[in-house]
Write a structure and sequence with these properties.
Elements lengths: L7 E4 L17 H8 L3 E4 L1 H4 L9 E4 L3 H5 L4 E4 L6 H18 L3 E5 L9 E3 L7 E3 L3 H8 L3 E5 L5
Parallel strand pairs: 1-2, 1-5, 5-8
Antiparallel strand pairs: 3-4, 6-7
Helix pairs in contact: 4-5
Amino acid sequence: MWVGTVMKLVSACLLGVNCNFEGKNCLNAELQEEFMKGALFPVCPEVLGGLGVPRVPGEIVGGDGGDVLDGKAKVFNMDGLDITEQFLKGAYAALAIAKSVGASEALLIENSPSCGCGKIFDGSFKGKFCVGGGVTAALLIRNGVKVTCIKAVKE
């Protein structure tokens, strides 16, 4: 990190890391340029939580990321497997990284059950959305990290 650089977390898929559920990325050229300057620290909460790449897609059922943190909702994958524990583990790992690098801001990919902010998939696995945020986004916000949602651009 360059002296005086303010570090921000960023969804790793936005930097071209093939870590989304399909094993692909959503490269954002502007963010990649900022990363090259040493201002961004990439994270993939789902991978940090122990999920593989590629993986069966997951969605929050019964609420949003805040509800998952409060034990009122769960994360299931499309096969019906409860993956809440992995999402929580990844969210807390991302928070620990944010604290360790002094990040007070995170640039996260839209729609994700981990990183999404503003809207996420509704848990029906039918491509529908609802208002809310992902598990990691909710945890970061609760801990004073400013979260900005970045539109996905498929590779």
